[in-house]
Amino acid sequence: MAQVRKTTHSRKTATRKKTSARHGTARKGTKRAAPKRWSQRVTKESDALDLKRGVFTLTSPRKIAISLKRSAEHSSRRKTGAYRSALSMLTFYINRAGKTLPKAHRERLEKAKVELKRAFGRA
Question: Is 0.85 topped by the overall pTM?
Fold first, then answer.
């Protein structure tokens, strides 16, 4: 007589396993962990800029702008002009931080946008 084995998992779990296998996404126990957030992957792997570490935590908007300008002009990874790349990275950081970015820090970064325009002679 054949025994019927009951499964203890829900339909959602079974579906999740099927879709992860179908899409090639890794589950627990894999050798290499993927970045937790897509923005982290974009920052590391995109053809944007090679930024100086901690550039967005500098205290002066002018220092932030000068650092971004230097990085943009010396980067071999960017596909567009230096000004556009620098401004894009600054905007990307502000947008990804969202509501968690303290008001004072956001204001400093917004002032850095103005300083960046001035540094590139566009103000």
Answer: no
